[in-house]
Amino acid sequence: MSQVAFEFDLDDGGEPTYTVGELGDLINGALRRRFSDGVWVRGEIQGWNERGNHAYFRLVEEAARHDGSIAKASINVQFFANARMRLRPMLQKNRLQLSDGLKVRIFGHLDFFAPSGSLGLKMTGIDPRFTLGDLAMQRDEVVRRLVVAGLYDANRSRPLAAAPLRVGVVTSTSGAAWGDFVHELERSELGFQLRVIDVRVQGDQAVDMVTKAVRTLGRHRDLDVVALIRGGGARSELATFDHEAIATAIAGSMLPVFTGLGHEVDRSVADEVAHTSVKTPTACAAALVERVLAFRQRSELAWSGIWRVADRSVARAGADLGEVAHGLRHRVLAAVERGDERLVQRVGRLRTGSQRVLDRTDARLGSAVEGVRRAPARLEPEARHLDALVTRARLLDPVNTMARGWSITRTVDGRTVRAAADVAPGDEIVTTFAAGAARSVIQEVQS
Q1: Domain containing 75: what range?
Q2: pLDDT tens digits, one per residue of 404-439
Q3: Which end of the chain is more exposed for a tag (fewer CB within 10 A), N or C?
Q4: 264/406 same-domain check
């Protein structure tokens, strides 16, 4: 079958019709003519992505509309390896590390990429002063809000222990900062006790992890101080510690917070609100060691002073005691001598009085003996009466009674059985005779 051919008479009005590729070339030509020298653009980095030596990201601007909605504009940026290599010394000099969330002012050339139909910016320059100024303004604004809220000096008012040996640490345990901190404490040979929470100190999760760790350790009553440390890095990385959430956590901590965030020039907001801020993790550990050593020195000086005072007091007391003992010796000797004199006098009086008593007693005894000798008949009735009493006692003695055939019956607990009513069938009794005893059980009771 042959194909049907259709013919249309199209009138384009004389306007040219371009292919997609031709349109892309025209767009690029217009961009080169309009922005032949390149263009400066400012915005926030989002979606930072490195592929080999190249980097790609979106430069984003968000602005509030009158109706409260957010207007968002973005452009794709290509940061190729040659440009990155050329700009690296300047970024390192200003200690900037490009990453998500960083506000930048960059220079580049616009380019329409026909295969994807997208407009992009090939980055070839950057204004570090813009980024540093923006970071500074953000930091100043956070500080202003903390001052207004009364939080700026809150942590500095926390009392610091005289010997802060129990230390809570917030850091990345995989970094050199942790090793430097621990090494400095161990080198002091003091008895530090550490409790560490491992966190990210840069990146998307850093702010949330550091904030939670500071709050957690700041509530521990068994710690003396919290140390927030990290190693050195770019200013943009250290901007993590300019975040208001971290500063608020430090201000609200019940424990003093020491910061050693590894930067020699800048002070972060965390440094501003901390109880004590130093430059590096090693310096942070050294500050704690210095505090403990100062306490130990004060203690040793105090003990030395106590020893000197005690020694002088003992010496004075010894001298006073010697004087008291010397005076006491004289008084005791005098008292003993007086006592001897009184004792001799009393012995004399006793000897004289005793002799008179003995003489009178001898006289009375002689009179009594003589009276007994003269009246012997008076004693005979009394002697006969006494003999009768002895005979009766012998007759009443149970031993003699039992010898005539009598016995004594008791219960097993020792009660004497005087009548049949005192026992019951089944009771056990013990009968004692003049010679021996017998144990029996009651079979029947007859009243």
Answers
A1: 20-126
A2: 767 888 888 888 888 888 888 888 888 888 788 888
A3: N
A4: no
